[in-house]
Amino acid sequence: MTKLLIVDDEQGIREMLEIYFKREGYDVTTASDGETALAYCKKTPFDVVVADIKMPRMDGINLLNRVKEFSPETIFIMITAFASFETAKESMKKEAYDYITKPFDVDEVKRKIDAALAKRNEELRVSSDAGMAVNTFDSVPGASAFENLLGQSAEMKKVFDTIPRAALAKTNVLITGESGTGKELVAKAIHYHSPRRQNPFVTINCGGIPETLLESELFGYKKGAFTGAAVNKKGFFEVAHGGTIFLDEVGELPLSLQVKLLRVVQEKTFTPVGGTEEVKVDVRIISATNKNLEKKVIEGTFREDLYYRLNVIHIHISPLRERKEDIPLMANYFLKKYSHELGKDVTEISSYAMDCLSQYHFPGNVRELENIIEKGIALAKTSIMLPESLELSKFKTEEQERAKPESPSVPCIPPEGIQLDEILERCEKEYIEEALKISKGSISGAAKLLGISFRSMRYRLEKCKLDEHTLKQ
């Protein structure tokens, strides 16, 4: 949980920010002056301090100086009622990450905090592999193969927590998720953190090999088995002996091969094409698919017994559009990676460009984000990546198209007329109640669903006479 300290001599601002960020899941502490805040910082290491520049007893700049002496990693975001260049410049010289001017929108404050945390976490990961609950297994062979396995969302932390436990188990693993979410990276992480790490990790794309060749690729063949079989050839399972075989897009396997795969899973033996003697192997199977295998089982296109044999440990990777808090972290990682590879001095993604990325639906998931950043660096004309450098696709997945709400029909107006204000008020109240229901009473969450600011949401709650008791229902 992110530890946040809010320092401002105005009680209203402290309370507003405290309510908002507690609902967002932050561990919030408040102080009315710099000296009190300094005492708190000496007792507790805060991730972020949001501090007013003009305060009694000790101003924000002095607080920044004192805290940086013993906690240089603490992020400072300064608040000022004086939107002057000199004030901003002074705070930046003192190592504040950013500043905001009064009056401000709390959503803007959160965006700046999220961006600052993402940047700090990425810098820590690059410099010392610390500050994040992301295990890239740098201490074992092959670690560079999954350096893109990043995330700070609850969904990804669950994946990171499962990987080491799955690695030490001997059972089969099924990884599900849309294309481009990083299923192969997770499979490699499991293998290279397992006792099999010194043995082969063999990948086969079940949907990328013609059905007529797939059996011989999986199980090998004997000389003379078919035209062109001039020598004996080992299949992928035999090559992977002692290690791990990764069956990518396992849902594309034809039923005829599913029967033979089931035998390998159960008996650890198979017969090469054209052979008569069984070959015994010790192989761990990790499978991945972007299909709904349960649905394919019901349809009769995937064997139920094979499904349960493969799906002993299940790891699901959510699409990027459902874990948007991971976008800044990964975008900054790819920025560093491709700036170095392409020899471009692009050091930062502008806040407007990051907003564009955060609002984008990413049909291609992490793979698409990487491609967008690489192209953006190649096209960037300055050291800061701007929105015009981003090439965002208008393509949407089938699921998104099905989920797209229908355009509301225009109602008929009766001859006697209508009371428009009354109808609009009732409609507004119904939308707000529904948004609060979906967000489980979170005002900030409901505001996001309705596309309005936190402040606007508060105003509308008062206007519609929705009290705290209503919100908790």
Can you describe what's shown?
The protein is an alpha/beta fold and 473 residues long. It has 4 domains: 126 residues, Rossmann fold (3-Layer(aba) Sandwich); 174 residues, 3-Layer(aba) Sandwich (Rossmann fold), CATH 3.40.50; 81 residues, Helicase, Ruva Protein, domain 3 (Orthogonal Bundle), CATH 1.10.8; 59 residues, Arc Repressor Mutant, subunit A (Orthogonal Bundle), CATH 1.10.10.60. It is built from 20 helices and 14 strands. Strands 2-1-3-4-5 form a 5-stranded parallel beta sheet, sandwiched between helices. Strands 7-8-11-6-12 form a 5-stranded parallel beta sheet. A two-stranded antiparallel ribbon has the order 9-10. Helix 10 crosses helix 12 and helix 17 crosses helix 18. The protein is elongated and about 90 Å long. The relative contact order is 0.08.
CATH topology-level fold name of the largest domain:
Rossmann fold
Share of residues in strands: 5-15%
Strand order of the largest sheet: 2-1-3-4-5
The helix/strand class is alpha/beta
Query: Strand count, sense and closure of the main sheet?
Result: 5 strands, parallel
What is the CA-atom radius of gyration, in angstroms?
Answer: 28 Å
Number of strands: 14
Would you identify the CATH H-level superfamily of the largest domain? Answer: P-loop containing nucleotide triphosphate hydrolases
Helix content: 40-55%
